[in-house]
Amino acid sequence: MNIKMINQPMQPRVERLSKIIGAPIFESTLWGHEYTLDHLNEMLTAQVKSGHFDKFIFYGMGCSSVVSDIVKGFFITHQIPIDVEVVNDYDTEWFVTDKDLTRDKTLVFIVCYSGWSVEPCLFYERMKRLNGALNLIVLSGGGRIAKMAKNDGNSVIEYRMRHADREYPLYHVQQFFSIFLDLFHKLNILEIDYEDQLRDAVSYLKQKFDSSLIDKAYAMAEKLQGSRIVLLSTSKWYVQLLKQTTMFFNEIAMVPTHRNLLHEFSHTEVAAYSNPVEKQAIIILSDSEDDDYTKNKVATLRKLFGDKSIPQNMNIEFFDIQLNQEDFFQKFYFAHFFMVYVAMFLGQMSNVEGRDLISIAAKNPWWSQESIDEHPLCVDIPGELSESIQKSIEVV
């Protein structure tokens, strides 16, 4: 599969993505077995398998919260009879109550791939104070939080990925999701493991992403250059797709991008597109199963902003990505990977050099450049880091 290249050196994050995009990254969808249950409490495991829990609460930040959002959307789409809440903020009390966190039939998951994000570690300590971290499972690649949970004798499920990117777990969203599907099947939460559907999806992706489709992604990236971008969809795909897509545009292309619900946007932000002086872009993910009201809403927005004969639209690019595939997996992965291609091409074109902004802003030493240099592999993430690495995230 030929990937278009800009005639200039690529930033390392974009170069690494360009080497795996296509068949290698599609096939990682099938690597849902790369984790270990060695530190999962037997009594808790028996409770989960017996169907004791009727509510799951996921806590995570950044990419770790993306996977939790996908799980929530998947459970709703496939009518899995478990209520799912996702919390990805420091002030958890505004999302879930202590009573909800500690009820007997609530199972809490802390998802933290690096194991070094501050907020999940603080949340773990809070759960210890509330109920001794009863009915809690930590999912991590190691790090501080895994060490804490193991030392306390609490349950840990550890990712053991073969080709983890040292800086961008975003590249492995599809594999994280497959791990959850496999895990939940092993724990009797899902009746099937969905391996057949995933194989079919990979075959579909390999057939669908030909040179013509990749050219469309490239052309879209060309039109997006220099724009501030808003991603829109209905609630269905807002939960499962827009967060990770926004992160790809922000972290990989390093282009200012935000997301909103399609209908909410039409009541609020739409006013800002009256006659913009600077370039703006609207990208909508439209599902063929949307109801008539939603389809009419998209048609209205296309008429309002997609007509270049209207002078006020000269600085607006409008895109409507159609999700008309046969099933959930085809729709999900088509949209995901098409937007990854667009983000990669936009990253090549913008060619912005990164800084240690996330590691410093989030106070996560594992993603700092010094830590990357000292620990170049993202496997067996240590539970302790050197003092110099800890200080590398401090703002002087």
UniProtKB/TrEMBL annotation:
Span of domain Bifunctional glucose-6-phosphate/mannose-6-phosphate isomerase C-terminal: 216-354
Domain of life, per lineage: Bacteria
UniProt keywords, alphabetically: Isomerase
GO molecular function: carbohydrate derivative binding; glucose-6-phosphate isomerase activity; mannose-6-phosphate isomerase activity
Gene3D superfamilies from the UniProt entry: Glucose-6-phosphate isomerase like protein, domain 1 (3.40.50.10490)
Biological-process GO terms, alphabetical: carbohydrate derivative metabolic process; carbohydrate metabolic process
Stated family: Belongs to the PGI/PMI family.
Protein name: Bifunctional phosphoglucose/phosphomannose isomerase
Organism: Mycoavidus cysteinexigens
Source species taxonomy: Bacteria, Pseudomonadati, Pseudomonadota, Betaproteobacteria, Burkholderiales
